[in-house]
Specification:
There is one protein chain. The chain is mostly helical. The protein contains 25 helices and five strands. Helix 10 runs antiparallel to helix 11, helix 12 runs parallel beside helix 14 and helix 14 packs antiparallel against helix 15. The termini are far apart.
């Protein structure tokens, strides 16, 4: 027994020793059980099973002893860090948590907060290290396994992520997040018990609407894997129904926004605002279009180039653009120049010394006139995809953001798609020389000639890595994060056809 606890134990060894200590206590071998629990508690001061075992045997660890071993974080400090984390003050959290770690090296809560702050900064390797340290202290905390799995998935280590999600479920079989994330990462076969677990949870009632909606989308994917399409689409419709109800989306609000955009364009033209291109500096590349049209793939391709960094989806242009079109009195020379300065500051943090930085927020298509005015040097890539494939992909994804309310109803999607196409036709008339149109279907059908033309349009010299976006190690925070780890492939555009018999002609208006 001493030989196995004499060195740092892995999870399996630790569980064996804990079970052995429990059996010894049950058989009345109190002295040996205390000794074994104590060795485990010395090695893993936060291990709850060891601490509970000692307490039951009349040998509780004192608060002083726990503090000496770097015990749990005091409640007031935990609250302070959690509030900063929720307020997205990630740098402040990292500074404070690193300072506290010297005093509380075995605080699972502190390690999880530290790791989460790193994850939010796309520093996933550091996060993984902290999560694993927390699991060395106590391997039976389901949420730590869950967060570790998410970080592993973010860096593309899908085998390890699947194993960690599975461990989460071993400890907490009804963990909805782990069930849904694992569903996205695996291919289901007939008789997979996870499907029965998800159906039972979803249909039993009692779950919060948000969790039930997530399960419905996961069941759409799982049942689709085993070709039970009737059940699959039933859960998809239900998940979308719940999500639309939660968001309270009304298409009239978008109709009004697009009407304002056209009026604002006229006002922008009459204002005579001109921003001169400055020599040098970072060149923004706006990759835009409908969500799920291929913008993430294009970003991954371009950021494979040595001179291009990816900023992900930068909300600033969309936020300010929406404010300007709704309150047009804000349109002044100062506002425009302040926006340029703020946006350049964001890109500078992301540039890593590169000459170009991508912003792939799809909804930026609404403000192409503003982009052309503020950034005369910007490159604009409009990614176009088959309307039916795009609309289905929007409908079949449960987006993290709450800004895409139109996605959860087929009528709303068709309406919004109409807003999008009419506006892009208008922008094409106004700014044809500024917009590079890229067909997603052409890109996946013949990648090399399309990528070469794209590189020329942006002003990049050719690099072979542009054809291997799956080897790009950057982190994507979009619904496409799993697909981009694959090489450029065909086939996803036909996914909607499997479900066409169940859609009551929803996409007939888009032609054949």
């Amino acid at each position: 027994m001493r030989q196995e606890t004499g060195a740092k134990l892995n999870n399996a060894q630790l569980n064996r020793q804990l079970k052995l200590a429990q059996k010894l206590a049950a058989k009345g071998n109190k002295e040996e059980a205390i000794r074994l629990y104590s060795e485990i508690a010395d090695m893993f001061p936060g291990n709850r099973r060891a601490l509970d075992g000692l307490a039951k045997l009349g040998k509780p660890r004192s608060p002083d002893a726990l503090q000496a071993n770097g015990g749990e974080l005091p409640e007031d400090l935990a609250r302070e860090l959690t509030e900063r984390l929720e307020g997205k003050q990630f740098e402040a959290v990292l500074d404070k948590a690193c300072e506290l770690l010297a005093s509380f090296p075995n605080s699972i809560l502190l390690l999880n907060i530290l790791a989460t702050a790193h994850s939010q900064q796309d520093q996933h390797e550091q996060a993984i290290g902290h999560f694993r340290h927390a699991l060395e202290i106590n391997p039976e905390v389901a949420k730590t396994h869950y967060y570790l799995a998410a970080a592993l998935a973010a860096v593309g280590d899908f085998d390890a992520a699947r194993a960690s999600f599975a461990q989460t479920l071993a400890l907490e079989p009804n963990h909805v997040g782990a069930l849904c994330q694992l569903a996205a990462l695996k291919r289901f076969g007939g008789g997979d018990p996870q499907i029965a677990t998800m159906i039972s949870l979803c249909d039993a009632g009692g779950l919060p609407e948000g969790l039930r909606s997530r399960l419905c989308f996961a069941l759409y994917k799982a049942l689709g894997d085993i070709d039970d399409l009737e059940q699959s689409v039933r859960y998809l419709h239900e998940g979308n129904r719940i999500r639309k109800k939660m968001l309270g989306y009304d298409a009239r609000e978008d109709q009004q926004l697009f009407a304002h955009i056209y009026k604002y364009h006229q006002l922008l033209g009459e204002s005579g605002l001109v921003v001169e291109r400055e020599p040098g500096g970072i060149v923004p590349i706006f990759i835009l279009g409908m969500p799920r049209s291929g913008t993430t793939l294009v970003e991954q391709i371009l950021s494979s180039h040595s001179q291009v960094e990816a900023a992900g989806e930068v909300e600033l242009m969309s936020q300010v653009g929406t404010a300007l079109v709704r309150e047009q009195s804000l349109l002044t020379d100062k506002t425009v120049r302040d926006l340029r300065a703020m946006y350049q500051a964001v890109l500078a943090k992301k540039s890593g010394g590169g000459a170009f930085v991508t912003d792939k927020l799809p909804q930026n298509f609404r403000y192409i006139n503003l982009i052309c005015t503020i950034f005369p040097e910007a490159k604009i890539i409009h990614v176009e995809r088959d309307a039916r494939a795009t609309c289905w992909s929007n409908y079949s994804h449960n987006f993290v953001t709450n800004d895409l309310g139109y996605c959860y109803d087929l009528d709303d999607i068709r309406t919004y798609y109409g807003f999008y196409t009419r506006l892009m036709d208008f922008w094409q008339e106004q700014f044809a020389d500024r917009i590079y149109r890229l067909s997603y279907e052409a890109l996946v059908e013949a990648p090399e000639p399309e990528v070469r033309r794209l590189a020329d349009a942006v002003g990049l010299n050719w690099e072979a890595g542009l054809l291997k976006p799956e080897e790009n190690k950057r982190i994507a925070r979009t619904a496409s994060q799993y697909q981009i780890r694959k090489s450029i492939y065909k086939g996803s555009g036909q996914q909607w056809r499997r479900y066409e018999p169940y859609l009551d002609g929803a996409f007939d208006r888009f032609g054949k």
